Amino acid sequence: MSSRKPLIAGNWKMHGTIAETEERIAQMLPRIATSEHVDHAICVPFTALQAAVDSARGSLLNVYAQNMHEGENGAFTGEISAGMLTEIDVQGVLLGHSERRSLFGETDKALKLKVPAALNAGLQVILCVGETEDERENGDTERRLRHQVQEGLEKVPAERLGELVIAYEPVWAIGTGRVATPEQAQDALAFVRALVADRDKAAAEQVRVLYGGSMKPDNAAELLALPDCDGGLIGGASLDVDQIIAIVDACTR
Q1: pLDDT for residue 252 is more than 90
Q2: Which letter does DSSP use for residue 131 in this model?
Q3: What amino acid positions are annotated as catalytic residues?
Q4: Rounded distance, CA 44 to CA 52, Å?
Q5: Which domains does the chain show, CATH number per domain?
Q6: Which residues are bridge partners to 69 per DSSP?
Q7: Quick one: pLDDT band at residue 3, thresholds 50, 70, 90?
Q8: Which residues lie closer than 8 Å to 20 by C-beta, 6 or more apart?
C-alpha cells in the first residue's frame, strides 16, 4: 500500500461570493475535523481568498488559488503573483487547468515558468494535465500527457519533483457527467507517474497523482482504490458540502 497521503481538492471555479465562501467553509470544518488521514484543499476565486484563509485558519483545510503569474511584479494587468498569494497565507495554487488552457490560452511554455515560481514561493502546486476527446479518439493521449508533464516539470529540480501534485483530468469528462473507466484512469495515472520516474524514480514514488474528471460520491471509492490514484480534483461536486464529504469518506474506505 502506498504511503502517499490522499488529497481531496475542491475547485470552486467562478463560484462563491465572500458570504457563500464563509458559509460553505463553516459547514465543512466540523465534518473534516477528525479526517487527518486526508489532506483537504479548496481552490477559490481571487476575491474570496482572504475570507477563505481567515475562515479556515487553524483547521485541516488548505486554501489554494486557481491561477497565478510567474513574475514577481510588473505590467501584467489582471494578474496575481505568488508573493501576493503567500502574503495573505494562501497555501497553494492550481495551475494549467483545462479551462485555463482552452478558454484563456494557457500554454505549456507559461506553465514551465509558473510551476517553479510557485514552488520557490513556498506554494503547494497542483499541475493539471489531460487530453481532449479528439486526442483520445486519435490515440494521442500519451503524446499529449508526455508533452504537458515534461514541459511543466522541465525547470523543477529533481529533488523537488516529489513535492508536486499532478492532476490528470480527461478534458472530455469535465462537466459532462462522463467518467473515464477505472482502466482508462489507471493507465493514465500510471503513465503520468512513469513520466516523473523518467526524471527521478524516488520522486515518482512521492508525487501525488489525482484524478480530476467528474469524480462524485457514487464513483469515488472505485477511482480512489486505483493503485496510482492519490486523491481527486473535484469540480462541481465540491460546491455541495455533503458530496465533497462523501468523497473524503471514500478515502477511508
Answers
A1: no
A2: -
A3: 97, 169
A4: 8
A5: 7-252 (3.20.20.70)
A6: 81
A7: confident
A8: none
